[in-house]
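Last lecture ended with a question: if I hand you only a sequence, what can you say about the shape of the protein? Today we answer it with a concrete record. The protein is J domain-containing protein. Below, first the input exactly as provided, then the predicted structure, then a couple of comments.
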Amino acid sequence: MTNPEAQQQARQSVSDAEPQAESHDRSGETRFGETRPQGPWSEDSRSGDAGPGDAGSSGDAGSGDAADAGDARAQEEAQAAERLERAVRAAEQALIEFEIAVETFRVEVENFSRLHHQRLGPMYSRLDELDALIAEAVAARTGDPEDIRKAQEARGLVQPMPGVEELFHGWIDSEGLSPEAAAMLTERPVQPPPRVRPSEEARRIYRELARKAHPDLAEEEAERERRGAFIVRVNAAYAAGDEEALRALAEEWEAGPPPPERRASRSEELYARLEWLAERKEMLAAVAAELESSAIGAMIKMAPEDPDRLLDEIAEQLLAQAAEKETRLAELMR
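The predicted structure:
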């Protein structure tokens, strides 16, 4: 399923890029700190060995060394970014291969599950029906309450009760029964929603915010969108008559827009991309493990080259079980 070579390449690229990036930072700082311009107040000039002309030459040389160190550091940073870029590309390719493998197996499981249901579903239903008939025949013979209970349970497997979602489809949401459903079940009239009348203070704050934050007052599109989203919140608070929420919105508006976020460097973007790729791979690995541990997935793993043959073997076993149960039922019906 997976592509071990591509994943190993991604991990190796990341491991190569990170230590080298850290080492170039430390080495660059050390060289930059060791470079000191030799001016007229240096040790050599105070000793009297160098004249005014020599002191000036020494200062120029020191400045050149600092510039060279800065150039070297920039070059190393660029090289580290290139290595990190290669690591990201390798991880992306490995993830693509892994995702293709997982999706391919998911489709295999889905198709095999459908085929399994089409070919073996009627046989499973027949076995359930035979179990119910046998249990009912035993209960009719003995009249024992326990046998009657078992017969009822067996029949329930053949004719399962509808689920709650089927019984109350459209009546139940995340908050429970809807008002209409509750009214129908309790035979009470549906209560209309309470009417909201905002206070005078809420109206004042609302009008003030509407004047200050209206989107038409903005010249730039981004600011217009920010104001539009803010006015939506203001309208919702006013419609609910929530004076406290309106006060909080007024304070938020007075505080001004949030400061712009610092733009991430290229290295930061690449590291963030690597983290996302790793999280995505973990998610896909969990999906793959779930597929492999499922009943259908286990069947495919038992006969990956010829799953149809496995279905034929299971069908033969089910037919044999059905024959045994029919014989047992015939004995009970005598």
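Comments.
1. Strands lie at 172-173, 176-177.
2. The CA atoms of residues 115 and 229 lie 50 Å apart.
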